[in-house]
Amino acid sequence: MAVYTEVSDEALTAFLSAYEIGTLLSYKGIAEGVENTNFFLHTTAGSYILTLYEKRVREGDLPFFLNLMEHLAARDLACPQPIRNRDGAALGRLCGRPAVIVSFLDGVSVKRPGLHHCGELGRALAGLHAAGADFGMVRENSLSVEAWRPLFAVAEAQADTVAPGLGGRTRADLAVLEAGWPRGLPGGVIHADLFTDNVFFIGDRLSGLIDFYFACTDAFAYDLAICLNAWCFDADGTYHRDKGQALIAGYQAVRALEPAEVAALPILCRGAALRFMLTRLVDWLNVPPGALVQPKDPLEYDRRLVFHRDAGRAEDYGWVAESLARASPP
Amino acid sequence: MAVYTEVSDEALTAFLSAYEIGTLLSYKGIAEGVENTNFFLHTTAGSYILTLYEKRVREGDLPFFLNLMEHLAARDLACPQPIRNRDGAALGRLCGRPAVIVSFLDGVSVKRPGLHHCGELGRALAGLHAAGADFGMVRENSLSVEAWRPLFAVAEAQADTVAPGLGGRTRADLAVLEAGWPRGLPGGVIHADLFTDNVFFIGDRLSGLIDFYFACTDAFAYDLAICLNAWCFDADGTYHRDKGQALIAGYQAVRALEPAEVAALPILCRGAALRFMLTRLVDWLNVPPGALVQPKDPLEYDRRLVFHRDAGRAEDYGWVAESLARASPP
Q1: Among A54, A92, A230, B228, which residue has the least CB neighbours within 10 Å?
Q2: Is B238 in the A-facing interface, judged by CB distances under 8 Å?
């Protein structure tokens, strides 16, 4: 949520001269995106977002993200569309950083989603999975189950200083998840970070998805599990099954879950919670001096894990038998 | 340059329901304004800036600033225009803070102004002074000569830790300025903070002035002196007389300086430099832990003061006899 790199009017004007998007009228650094620097651009041709990629994004991954956004936008999924310059390149360089201009999407993030928002999200998520089906690139999920133990190793010694018993709980979770992690589920492109900040609404209508910088190739149902974690819990760890039901029903209105996905939902949800607890824990313990960004609380996900350890069935998350799901309000 | 106050979609939607500016399409926290939190708003009716005033702005001063912007905008000066809600109020409350919506101004701040920019600024500054002539409110300049000694008292003991000899130089400057500060010069509303960030250009044309939160009632020539400091020096303290000449000539193309103002220009410039050195010095020595904003370097103004101490005549700043000024390129 910060501008890490200042961009002068001269540098920006020179950069824009390679694009056919009119004359610069205005640009403002915006407090959005934890990992990158973003500017709102207004030109005589319209509104755009200019992103400068800071250290945490691997430059080699950018073609995957940019091609994916282009692929999805071409299939009418409402997401930022990379703008190519006169040479046909979407990826440029500005102030020493990889830089990209994408189309500006209207919409507002909902801090406290209701049932209707969850239903809309479910439909959009399934639409994203469908639209990505013929995308030709692959990017492994570098934050899946194999990554969790090495991540935890970085934080393990200090885990109990963050919450008593956190180290022990995490070791036990890791053992269960590594032993039981499902393989061979239907998969393809997933967003992998569809938190409320990354989903826009205009009024009641879902108007777009943003921030594809964790997108990767993995199980579709894992993406659903990430969303159930991000959208259906209170910060205190209370799960709202009615929200989960709306989200899953919305998803199934577009793409039916296979029995193996339904069966795997509880462990996928538990794994997704551990993944966010771990990355937050590492960030929490490694705030650099002078940090511009407040780290997110890992204990929000520690509290979600309490629910996941008890929840053994997809029904606990709001999944209902097909006939009922089809009958639920759209 | 930070978002100090988070505003949820629910809080913003409730706030906007009192205004007739259409439906919210988008809002982004923007990294602009050292003292306040600013959001870019896009609605079905257009683009706006929403400002939440943080602690450093005195709430009692807000009617002066808001009425002034309204007064100037009504006289076709390009500046943000406060939007009144259905009850006719420009000043509202949001997230516990005084909050105002103003019209969005296109334009780009020029980091390294050239001669042409300085000329445009001079004309706009004189236009501002003329447009404010019939403004009915008064706000004393709380950062003029009387304020400098108390400001210095806060920093005096530590001044030499910032630069060797800074304390002694400042004491000598204060004595000279307090003894010789000019009184009775033509005056009225001044902007008092017209740094390059607060002046917008589209291409070569000055498109607007923003950030009236230091505006007050004081000598017009002091406003010009502030601009000469902010626009005509390099960071190393080198004065560009050609820029000063363009700025002064631009000003005089709209409003001729009186002889007393010309004579006072050197001391006004020296005073303006000391004012910014002092406020920066105090901020420099008092960065709160966890500050979101990098303090500005007071020594930039300490270096400008070296020039000012030697410069005794308006000519040193680029003022030229009337006939020459009139002949200079517009």
Answers
A1: A54
A2: no
Question: Domain A9-103 belongs to what topology?
Answer: Phosphorylase Kinase; domain 1 (3.30.200)
Helix intervals (H) in B93-219: 115-131, 145-162, 166-180
B296 shares contact with chain A (CB less than 8 Å): no
**Partners of residue B105 in chain A, C-beta under 8 Å:** 26
Closest A-chain CA to B293? A292
* pLDDT over 60 (residue B1): no
* Nearest-neighbour CA in chain A from B112: distance (Å): 8
Provide the total of helices (H) and of strands (E) in chain A, helices listed first. Answer: 11, 9
8 Å CB contact between A129 and A192:
no
Q: CB-based contact (8 Å) between A124 and chain B?
A: no
Q: Where are the domains of chain B?
A: 9-103, 115-327
Interface confidence, given as ipTM, is 0.86
Write the CB contacts of B203 (distance below 8 Å, at least 6 apart in sequence).
Answer: A23
Q: For residue A293, give both structure tokens.
A: 């960004």
* Contact with chain B for residue A29, Cβ under 8 A: yes
Question: What distance in Å separates residue B189's CA from the closest CA in chain A?
Answer: 27
pLDDT in tens, A220-232: 999 999 999 999 9
Shortest CB distance from A108 goes to which of B26, B40, B110? B26
Q: Is B1 on the interface with A (CB under 8 A)?
A: yes
8-state DSSP, A21: S
CA distance A326 to A330: 9
> At the top level of CATH, which class does the domain B115-327 belong to?
alpha beta
Query: Could you read off the pLDDT of A120-132 as tens digits, one per residue?
Result: 999 999 999 999 9
Query: How far out from the chain centre does Cα B316 lie?
Result: 23
What is the pTM for the complete model shown?
0.89
Percent of chain B with pLDDT over 90: 88
